[in-house]
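Predict fold of Septum formation initiator family protein; 104 aa.
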Amino acid sequence: MIQKLRPYLPTAIIAIFLTYCSVQYLTGDKGFFSQETRQVELAEKQAQLQKLSAERKDLEARARYLRTDNLSKELLEERARVLLGLNAPNEYVIRDQNPSSHNS
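Predicted 3D structure, encoded as tokens:
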């Protein structure tokens, strides 16, 4: 019986291989039917990239103005206020004792 099937064995192996490749082409991770999902993911990643690029440009500009050779007094004062809680002599700061009550 095996002797009768032996000539068809290469054809069967090739058919199985082609079937596997066809299924992967259609339904695999990078298959034909998952193309729309990939395009949506690409659009999301491009939007995220644009957001991060804008944030990086802003941070680079701030860093440039905080260097000692090109120091911006206004930016330095703003950063001191934000990070250290400092203020100018003619400004008043009112601190809330319970900030969590405003979050609800």
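The mean pLDDT is 81.
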